[in-house]
Amino acid sequence: MKTPLKVHLALLLVALIYGTTYVIAKGVMPDHLGPSAFIFIRVTIAGILFFILSRIVSKERIRDKRDYLDLGIAAFFGVAANMLLFFNGLAHTTELNASVLMLNAPVFVLIFSRMVLKQKVSNLQIVGIALSTLGAVLLLGGRKLSFSGDTLQGDLMVLLNATSFAFYLVYVKRLLVKYSALTVIRNAFLFGWIFVLPFAWNELMEADYAAFAPRIWWAIIYVSFGTTFVAYALNAWAIKNASPVVAGSYIYLQPVIATGVSELLGNQLLSVEKVIFALLIFVGVFLVNTYKRAN
């Protein structure tokens, strides 16, 4: 099955958004806002936007009450657990560690696709995943990568987040074949809002919002609108029109984008090695996205 170009462009934009989120979100947590409170704010804002958009574009309703269980499961893994684990993990580890650990997500997507959707995984896909993993680890390994006791708690949370997000990418496919992406995401965020509230309440009450500098508010807006509303909508739409494996493979572009941003800001110097490592990632993603489905 050939994936349309517009799907690849959507996933590329998602990777671009996620690739810049590590640094932006880290600048807010935990000094200014607790990670769980940050999650609640972004879920609330994005949820309201999804509701408004759905009222304008589509008023589709859930036709089978049994689908609410699937929506709840998708919301738990894709909204609540995914976001809470990532932001709480990021607050207790480094941006570099988090970006490396997220490279496990596409591998888990392959495994879950085989287990849940019974999709056959081609040898070309496995080679592509391996090349992208190698390139990303080498690209990030050129900087100071350290998994120490000080970051162990955060590292484990990010690893669990990668697993949760991978499961969501696969599980939500069963809903996207029945309903529009907007309908699924709108309901998933409603369930996610309910799941997140108990974890965020204390942090919401403790935050000193009056002391937030403008850059903190802009960071919150970027993560709520870009990383949550736009990225989740594009991801859901892409999965509806492609396989979860294709969507998951674009995670490998995030470290390339993060490195590119650092180059533009003058924080790093471009080298031949980095170009080669980036090319490995692109070749790997290309192989994953040009396979012929066996079933």
Q: Describe it for me?
A:
With 295 residues, the protein is mostly helical. The protein has one domain. Helix content is 75%, strand content 0%. It is built from 13 helices and no strands. Helix 2 (35-57) crosses helix 10 (214-241) and helix 6 packs antiparallel against helix 13 (272-289). It is globular and about 50 Å long. The model has no long low-confidence stretch (mean pLDDT 82).
Give the SSE string. Answer: HHHHHHHHHHHHH
Main structural class: mainly alpha
Largest sheet: none
- Total helices: the number is 13
Radius of gyration, taken over Cα atoms and rounded to an integer in Å: 19 Å
Strand content: under 5%
How far the N terminus sits from the C terminus, by CA atoms, comes to 10 Å
Q: Would you tell me the overall average pLDDT?
A: 82
Q: What best-fitting shape do the alpha-carbon axes yield?
A: globular
Number of domains: 1
Q: Point out poorly predicted stretches.
A: none
State the assembly state of the protein chains. Answer: single chain
Helix content: over 70%
- Per DSSP E runs of 2 or more residues, the count of β-strands stands at 0
Topology (elements, then pairings):
Layout: H1 5-26, H2 35-57, H3 67-90, H4 95-101, H5 105-116, H6 123-141, H7 152-171, H8 173-176, H9 181-206, H10 214-241, H11 244-249, H12 253-264, H13 272-289
